[in-house]
């Protein structure tokens, strides 16, 4: 990843939750009907969890992140547990565009692993994650029931095309709500570690043939650049390596104790004729202090 990253693509929404924001219809009479470009203003609002509304979307986001392994985990009880724990702790948020009763575009939530490790909704998922880890992984040590650590399993799930500056407020509000919940006497431990689950992809640096060439190889019209002699310029090869699907996770990686990537168990073997990028699961382990540092770095990048 580049050394100087920036997440600023669009202005971030105000990082404050709405308790109830019914959908408002706005007319578009002031727009220039003769323009070839249509602009749509979208308000992104932050909400606490509404289990009877958010369940279906959360299950969809969990399956998306599980990718080829989606048949290995029953996401229904897992989603119910995530939402119920969010309500119990008062921590975690969703992003919506059409009011509280609409489907979320993104959400961030945590589960207290020590409190819920024996819960039948979480136990199979923890077993799945542990099965991907080498015995010497720092994550294995933190997940060990005998460990003095208090880890939080963190779910940062969203649609891929969500504006990036919306994400740091989700993380920041999560930390504030956990702290506020402790002050109110809720059963929320002082987490020592955050284990962020997600997915990523691998590039060999030779993916031009799959239509994944860098934007710089195209002009504004979407056509390949040509030299004066009419021949195509060589395409810039993509950087080889493994990358998260969510670019903001690179800030987590920068300060993580460890970043573990694992192949999906149900993925078909790849060969020279395989199409598309190779996907993998990700587990990022951070101390509580490192999580705070990563969120601050995300915020700073959005201001640049």
Automatic annotation (TrEMBL):
Keyword Transmembrane helix in record: no
One Pfam family cited in the UniProt record for this chain: BCCIP
One BP term from GO: protein transport
Any one GO CC term of the record: nucleus
Keywords tagged on the record: Nucleus, Protein transport, Transport
The keyword Protein transport appears for this protein: yes
Cellular localization per UniProt: Nucleus
Region of interest called Disordered, as start-end residue ranges on this chain: 1-34, 216-243
Function statement: Involved in nuclear export, actin cytoskeleton organization and vesicular transport.
PANTHER family according to UniProt: BRCA2 AND CDKN1A INTERACTING PROTEIN, BRCA2 AND CDKN1A-INTERACTING PROTEIN
Family of this protein: Belongs to the BCP1 family.
Protein name: Protein BCP1
Species name: Dioszegia hungarica
């Amino acid at each position: 990843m580049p050394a100087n990253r920036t997440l600023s693509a669009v202005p971030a929404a105000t990082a404050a939750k709405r308790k109830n924001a019914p959908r408002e219809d706005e007319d578009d009479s002031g727009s220039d009907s003769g323009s070839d470009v249509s602009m749509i203003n979208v308000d992104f609002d932050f909400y606490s969890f509404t289990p009877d509304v958010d369940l279906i979307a959360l299950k969809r986001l969990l399956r998306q992140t599980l990718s080829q392994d989606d048949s290995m985990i029953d996401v229904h009880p897992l989603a119910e547990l995530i939402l119920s724990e969010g309500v119990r702790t008062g921590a975690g948020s969703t992003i919506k565009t059409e009011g509280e009763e609409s489907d979320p575009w993104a959400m961030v939530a945590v589960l207290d692993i020590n409190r819920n490790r024996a819960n039948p909704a979480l136990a199979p998922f923890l077993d799945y994650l542990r099965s991907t880890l080498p015995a010497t992984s720092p994550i294995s040590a933190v997940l060990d029931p005998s460990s003095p650590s208090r880890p939080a399993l963190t779910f940062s799930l969203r649609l891929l095309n969500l504006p990036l500056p919306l994400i740091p407020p989700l993380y920041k509000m999560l930390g504030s709500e956990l702290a506020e919940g402790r002050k109110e006497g809720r059963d929320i431990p002082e987490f020592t570690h955050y284990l962020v689950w997600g997915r990523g992809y691998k590039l060999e640096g030779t993916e031009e043939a799959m239509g994944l060439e860098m934007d710089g190889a195209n002009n504004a019209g979407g056509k390949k650049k040509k030299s004066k002699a009419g021949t195509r310029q060589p395409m810039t090869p993509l950087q080889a390596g493994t990358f998260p699907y969510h670019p903001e996770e690179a800030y987590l990686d920068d300060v993580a104790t460890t970043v573990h990537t694992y192949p999906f168990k149900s993925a078909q073997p790849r060969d020279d004729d395989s199409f598309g990028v190779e996907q993998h699961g990700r587990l990022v382990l951070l101390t509580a202090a490192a999580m705070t540092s990563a969120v601050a770095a995300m915020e700073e990048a959005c201001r640049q």
